[in-house]
Design goal:
With 219 residues, the protein is α/β, with parallel strands linked by helices. A hairpin with a 2-residue loop joins strand 5 and strand 6. The longest helix is centred in the middle third of the chain and has 18 residues. It has a 6-stranded mixed sheet with strand order 3-2-4-1-5-6, with helices on both faces. The chain has a single domain, classed as Phosphoglycerate mutase-like (Rossmann fold, 3-Layer(aba) Sandwich), CATH 3.40.50.1240.
């Protein structure tokens, strides 16, 4: 089954100011984010030059497209927006500061019992997880087992996908961390899935991405 590189979009001012952008249109990468996207493009072009990269898909939000475009250009691919890779629908919470939201009693549910959380006027974590899982399954069906697929999405959808394929209970998915412009490598296997890399930071050497091969030993 394919190897998925799940990439969180690069930085924007909502992230910098700790506000919940959600599905609000017009949220673009800031200067640091554009630099992160270019660094991702350069690194992936080097590491994946001789690898079977067969597609780069992304959330339809501007910040995801702006992250995907330099990567696609470096790899000679076309960016293909996929609605199901979109951010979680935070409903009435969209645009609000995380500091203000953290003062709400229901914030404890978000962190400790997310399986019970539905955002006011939005979707539940369970629905978001089902959406991203179905999207990955759909992409698997469109690609060969040896293909590498890049998906540019958002923090919660990526964490929810990892939790699903590792069999991690939904109430524990908040223990995962996915930073801006990070890479999470997930091999979807016929008899089980493997998390090869979580929240990879470009300041560290990229581990072996080929499924089925152990990482090289340190000398």
């Amino acid at each position: 089954m394919p190897l998925f590189l799940l990439i969180r979009h690069a930085e924007n001012d909502f992230v910098k100011k700790r506000r919940l952008a959600g599905r609000q249109p017009g949220v673009h990468l800031n200067e640091k984010g554009r630099q992160q996207a270019q660094a991702l493009a350069q690194t992936l072009a080097q590491k994946l030059a001789d690898q079977p990269v067969r597609g780069i898909y992304c959330s339809p939000m501007e910040r995801a497209i702006e992250t995907a475009e330099p990567i696609a250009q470096a790899l000679g691919l076309e960016v293909l927006p996929r609605p199901a890779l979109i951010e979680t629908d935070y409903g009435e919470w969209q645009g609000k500061s995380l500091r203000a939201l953290a003062r709400l009693k229901v914030w404890r549910t978000v962190l400790s019992r997310p399986s019970q959380m539905r955002f006011p006027g939005g979707e539940s974590f369970a629905e978001a997880q089902h959406r991203i899982q179905r999207e990955i399954e759909d992409l698997c069906a469109q690609h060969d087992a040896k293909d590498i697929i890049l998906c540019v999405s958002h923090a919660d959808p990526i964490k929810l996908a990892v939790a699903y394929y590792l069999g991690l209970p939904l109430d524990l998915f908040q223990r995962l961390t996915v930073n801006t412009a990070s890479i999470t490598a997930l091999h979807i296997g016929e008899f089980g899935s493997q998390l090869l890399t979580l929240n990879y930071d470009l300041s560290f050497p990229l581990p072996m991405l080929s499924p089925g091969k152990p990482p090289a030993k340190e000398k």
